[in-house]
Write a structure and sequence with these properties.
The structure holds 2 protein chains of 2 kinds. Chain A contains 18 helices and no strands. By secondary structure, chain A is an all-alpha fold. Chain A has 2 domains: about 350 residues, Formate dehydrogenase/DMSO reductase domain (Formate dehydrogenase/DMSO reductase fold, Up-down Bundle); about 55 residues, no CATH class. The longest helix of chain A has about 35 residues. The two termini of chain A are about 20 Å apart. The relative contact order of chain A is 0.17. By secondary structure, chain B is an alpha+beta fold. Helix content of chain B is about 25%, strand content about 15%. In chain B, the strands form 4 sheets. Chain B has a 5-stranded mixed sheet with strand order 10-9-8-1-11. A two-stranded antiparallel sheet of chain B has the order 2-3. A two-stranded antiparallel ribbon of chain B has the order 4-5. In chain B, a hairpin with a 5-residue loop joins β4 and β5. In chain B, α2 packs antiparallel against α4. The longest helix of chain B has 19 residues. The chains are: A mainly alpha, B alpha+beta.
Chain lengths: ~500, ~290
């Protein structure tokens, strides 16, 4: 992220600051009714869970031939989408992509929220949830489940740190804003969390270093989390679970679904909180471009997974694959292939569908379909009777559906609540981008190099959404904004 | 050396009862006393089954004799503990499921909790035969390795048990067991009358506990007393032999006594899904054109 010169004087971008604090100060009239509705969904889920505790897991559709099913699919799905938010943000930071600035806060917050939900979904899965602390005080180190627990906890902690570090300077900003608005208690809280941030170059340098380090660490950590999660399946001798491809399968699926969720959340947030001036359609399209390689990789892994054992193989895998490809799970599986892989890839690949609304719809398809894929991956091998060769069955009940929907509703609910406390845009990052761009423009000598520098500046501004791309906004408006900000930028150094 | 000399006995018993497919348990020299002990134990089994046939008195006498010798058999002079094993002779099984019913009755299980399950099989030649599947009591039990909290454990007598006061109900053991021998309590377990002096324990998992995993325990509460497990005792065909690999003797409900090592060698007995390396403690004797499932 270090782009040469140190930043001594970073300009304030009043528009960005105002927009980032709008959810905190004036969330809008729709806010509380929506929060209430989401909370109601969660209450229904809790009621369902209490019923399940009372009646036993059979009430959620489980039986001896479907011992793992919907809740494990939920765990994998939620932790998977978390991974996408963290890694997208980390990769964009490390590669110095300037356009990421308005997105990182939302992506990192999504990562934190979903890993918490995913981790909690192990609770409805357990038959005796009140004994879960045994994982800590009497662990069995040879169990993959224990290592899942370690990996997910570590990753959850890391994603929180990764969310918090870039947030610190913005909390200092929020502190002042809240004090102005008379919200003294929240202001004090923000002030305490801001750790005496003043924005001097030394602090900026150190924070930059810390964020860079965590961004590097979060990537192998996330890879390991998803690999370990897959090993909960692959370390058994069940057909289709005991496969080496599952670790990379899980990692790629997690990234794919995670980026899709970032697209969804970004699209919803920018709409409900009027952030379209900063998060443009172009951001969505660019995230769509990131979606493609992972979707393609997942398609490839799916073919690589199915072809060999469909062609020739042992009884168990052959039976399971027959049911998945042309049997009882075929409808679900092919729905996943078309809605989750082929359609989204085409949407981004074809120029006439490569537009924000279509990409958002494709992202929704990806997340829904990958949940279906995980259901098939969990249920089909569990259904297979290894002694008899007969398949059991799993049926949804209102309890399992209600608990799952509660998890889904918890994502927007927690995000809406979170952005009532913290600024929704990473203001400091956007301002630093602006300052860097100004320095680049200023230090460039006349002639061809200046043209290049101004092009760089254009890239930064368009990317960070401050100027808006020529594709999206009228040239005049873009010019106006540019002009406005030129005046704002104070000479650095 | 005289047959019943303690030193000779201790010397001939090998420490490792593990048998691998190619090389069945080495035939050990068996003292007369041990054979007598197991004969006694066999008598107990026969007594239980044959109460009606032999008459109550005779059965009771046999059972008490069995207990007396079995306690001696359990406490080895050399300090060695028994290593329990089962041999199932599929040539005799007619698929009546008496074993399943005896087990369910004894452990107060729901009808779908078939700790010993009888699978109906069809041979290549179209013949129907049956394969009872108890817990295989693997020497390398995958269920034990994957349990995150150590609720599944293996006793030094080779019995794999579940501590239902510890089990968190994650069901990873069900995923790991290649024999589908584990049954979860998905709903409220069948109530059992309170039995004084028999508190719920891994060896006596009665009543079952909601939200935990249960499995066949080979009636581990009975074995030390020289009594036969419910399934062995309940089999009207004498299919199931229960025995001790250290003493190298097994017995079925008819009171027929076998030397396990020789029996499994002479009858080309096999273990189920041997290739998975779980080292089951259950051997199957197959009839003509029969094979194990899977």
């Amino acid at each position: 992220m270090k782009q040469g010169a140190e930043l001594h004087d970073v300009p304030e971008l009043p528009e960005v600051r105002a927009a980032s604090m709008r959810p905190v100060l004036r969330p809008g009239r729709w806010y509380w009714p929506v929060v209430g509705a989401l909370a109601a969904v969660i209450v229904v889920g809790l009621v369902a869970w209490v019923t399940q505790l009372h009646e036993g897991l059979g009430a959620a559709g489980y039986n001896d031939h479907a011992f793992w099913a919907i809740y494990i699919a939920d765990v994998v799905t939620f932790i998977g989408v978390s991974y996408g938010g963290a890694v997208v943000s980390a990769i964009l930071r490390l590669s110095g992509a300037a356009w990421r600035a308005p997105l990182t806060r939302i992506a990192e917050a999504t990562a934190v929220v979903t890993v918490i939900i995913g981790g909690s979904f192990i609770i409805p899965h357990l038959g005796r949830p009140e004994r879960i602390l045994e994982l800590i005080y009497r662990p069995n180190l040879s169990s993959p489940i224990f290592w899942d627990f370690v990996a997910v906890s570590t990753y959850a902690f890391a994603s929180m740190v990764f969310f918090f570090l870039p947030l610190m300077p913005d909390l200092a900003m929020a502190r002042d804003r809240l004090a102005e608005a008379g919200r003294h208690r929240l202001s004090r809280l923000c002030g305490a969390c801001a750790c005496r941030w003043q924005g001097n170059p030394r602090q900026r340098r150190r924070l930059d270093g810390a964020i860079g380090l965590v961004a590097i660490m979060v990537i192998p950590l996330a890879v390991s989390v998803h690999s370990v999660l897959s090993w909960a399946f692959t370390l058994t001798s069940r057909p289709w679970w005991n496969e080496s491809i599952w670790a990379p399968y899980f990692v790629v699926a997690a990234l794919y679904s995670g980026i899709a969720l970032v697209i969804l959340v970004v699209a919803i947030m920018r709409r409900v909180w009027g952030l379209k001036a900063f998060i443009t359609d172009r951001h969505i399209v660019r995230l769509g471009f990131i979606l493609v390689p992972f979707g393609a990789a997942y398609l490839y892994l799916t073919i690589a997974d199915f072809l060999p054992s469909s062609y020739v193989g042992e009884n168990g895998v052959t039976s399971v694959f027959t049911q998945v490809l042309v049997g009882r799970y075929a409808l679900w599986f092919w729905l996943f292939v078309f809605a989750g892989l082929i359609v989204p890839l085409l949407v981004v690949a074809l120029p006439w569908t490569r537009r924000a609304p279509f990409i958002v719809a494709a992202a929704a398809l990806v997340d829904g379909s990958l949940w279906i894929k995980r259901m098939v991956m969990v249920v089909a091998p569990a259904n297979y009777g290894r002694v008899s060769g007969v398949f059991g069955s799993y049926h949804f009940t209102w309890i399992s559906v209600a608990v799952t929907l509660a998890g889904v509703a918890a994502i927007p609910l927690l995000l809406l609540l979170l952005f009532r406390i913290v600024p929704i845009l990473s203001v400091t990052e956007m301002e630093e981008m602006e300052a860097r761009a100004a320095i680049a423009a200023k230090s460039a000598p006349a002639g061809t190099v200046a043209a290049a520098a101004s092009e760089e500046r254009e890239r930064v501004l368009v990317g960070s959404g401050i100027a808006g791309g020529p594709m999206m906004q009228s040239a005049a408006a873009a010019a106006d904004r540019q002009h406005l900000h030129d005046g704002d930028v104070r000479p650095g150094l | 050396m005289p047959d019943d000399a303690p030193a000779a006995d201790a010397g001939t018993v090998s420490g490792q009862p593990t048998a691998s497919p190619g090389q069945p348990v080495a035939i050990r020299k068996v003292s007369r006393r041990k054979v007598l002990a197991v004969l006694g134990a066999a008598g107990a089994g026969a007594a239980a089954v044959g109460t009606g046939i032999l008459g109550r008195e005779k059965a009771a006498a046999a059972a008490s004799g069995a207990r007396a010798v079995a306690s001696g058999a359990t406490k080895r002079r050399s300090g060695q503990v028994p290593q329990w094993a089962m041999v199932l002779d599929l040539r005799r099984c007619d698929g009546c499921k008496a074993c399943t019913m005896a087990c369910q009755q004894r452990h107060y299980l729901h009808s779908d909790q078939t700790w010993i399950k009888v699978y109906k099989m069809t041979s290549a030649g179209g013949q129907t035969y049956h394969m009872p599947r108890p817990c295989m009591m693997c020497e390398d039990p995958p269920c034990m390795y994957v349990c995150p909290v150590g609720a599944t454990f293996r006793t030094d007598e080779g019995i794999v048990l579940v501590d239902q006061s510890v089990c968190i109900g994650c069901r990873t053991c069900m995923a790991a067991c290649p024999y589908e021998a584990r049954y979860f309590n998905w709903s409220t377990p069948k109530p059992a009358p309170r039995m004084p002096g028999m508190p719920q324990s891994p060896e006596w998992p009665v009543p079952q506990v909601l939200g935990t995993v249960g499995k066949c325990v080979w009636c581990a509460d009975r074995l030390p007393h020289g009594e036969l497990p419910a399934c062995v005792q309940g089999c009207p065909m004498g299919v199931i032999y229960i025995g001790d690999l250290v003493a190298d003797v097994g017995v079925n409900s008819f009171g027929e006594v076998i030397r396990i090592a020789q029996f499994i060698r002479d009858n080309d007995a096999v273990r189920y899904q041997e290739e998975l390396g779980t080292n089951p403690r259950v051997w199957y004797v197959l009839g003509h054109d029969q094979s194990l499932a899977g």
